[in-house]
């Protein structure tokens, strides 16, 4: 009798376990898979670069300073067109080293344009650092870093820096999913990535 009760209890437990899918339990591994698979996380960081006359507001930006430090651009003072302010303006051009660096990154039909939008880096998930659950909603805290896609990306997004972000996941009838828009205090993944802070 005891043996039959033990066997039927074991069978019932196994049936209960088999009815649960791996997506029913929010583990760090599942959270990693959800974040890595999300479009905002997979989207490449693009770098918008402009040659020709640029305003004094844009030219001293950190990105232009990095390009200048690597010897990829040079600039001379120029008269400001009516649409650009404040004065002075700068005529930015690629140096020969800059042409060599950017040539393979610019699509063939865009070589004559003055504005370029090139892929520079992608995100890499370093670790899930915490999960705070409340019923069917959880905040997932994670650390990530930039991985350069080319020489320009390596200059603009050093790989050693790590960033801390928090996003929301919600349990639905088919398992856990990243929340695309904020439905309670917290932030969706795209906002969490934009508002990332340097990790300690």
Please name the defining characteristics of this protein.
7 helices; 2 domains; 200 residues; alpha+beta
Helix content: 25-40%
- Gyration radius, rounded: 25 Å
Shape: elongated
Which oligomeric state applies? single chain
Q: How many distinct folded domains? A: 2
Helix count, per DSSP?
Answer: 7
Low-confidence stretches: 14-21
Q: What is the typical, i.e. mean, pLDDT?
A: 84
The ordered H/E elements are HHHEEHEEHEEHEEHE
Measured between the Cα atoms of the first and last residue, the distance is 60 Å
Notes on the protein architecture:
The structure is a single chain. With 200 residues, the protein is an alpha+beta fold. The protein has seven helices and nine strands; from the N terminus they run H-H-H-E-E-H-E-E-H-E-E-H-E-E-H-E. 30% of the residues lie in helices and 35% in strands. A hairpin with a 2-residue loop joins strand 5 and strand 6. The radius of gyration is 25 Å and the shape is elongated. The N and C termini lie far apart (60 Å).
Question: What is the element layout, followed by pairings?
Answer:
Blueprint: H1 2-18, H2 28-37, H3 39-42, E1 45-50, E2 52-54, H4 62-69, E3 73-78, E4 89-94, H5 96-103, E5 115-134, E6 137-148, H6 151-156, E7 162-172, E8 175-178, H7 189-194, E9 197-198
Antiparallel strand pairs: 1-5, 2-4, 3-4, 5-6, 6-7, 7-8, 7-9
In brief:
The protein is of the alpha+beta class and about 200 residues long. It has helices at about 1-20, 30-35, 40, 60-70, 95-105, 150-155, 190-195, and strands at about 45-50, 50-55, 75-80, 90-95, 115-135, 135-150, 160-170, 175-180, 195-200.
């Amino acid at each position: 009798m005891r043996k039959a009760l033990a066997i039927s209890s074991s069978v019932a437990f196994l049936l209960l376990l088999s009815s649960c899918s791996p997506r029913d339990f929010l583990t760090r591994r599942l959270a990693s898979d959800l974040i890595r698979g999300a479009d905002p996380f997979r989207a490449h960081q693009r770098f918008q670069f402009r040659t020709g006359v640029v305003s004094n507001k844009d030219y001293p930006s950190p990105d232009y300073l990095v390009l200048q430090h690597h010897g990829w651009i040079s600039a001379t003072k120029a008269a400001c067109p009516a649409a650009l302010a404040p004065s002075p303006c700068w005529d930015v051009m690629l140096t020969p080293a800059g042409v060599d660096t950017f040539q393979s990154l610019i699509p063939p039909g865009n070589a004559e344009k003055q504005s370029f939008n090139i892929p520079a880096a992608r995100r890499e998930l370093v670790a899930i650092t915490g999960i705070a659950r409340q019923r069917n909603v959880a905040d997932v805290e994670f650390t990530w870093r930039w991985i350069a896609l080319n020489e320009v990306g390596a200059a603009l997004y050093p790989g050693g820096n790590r960033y801390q972000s928090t996003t929301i996941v919600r349990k639905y009838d088919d398992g856990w999913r990243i929340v695309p828009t904020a439905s309670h205090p917290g932030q969706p993944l795209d906002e969490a990535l934009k508002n990332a802070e340097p990790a300690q």
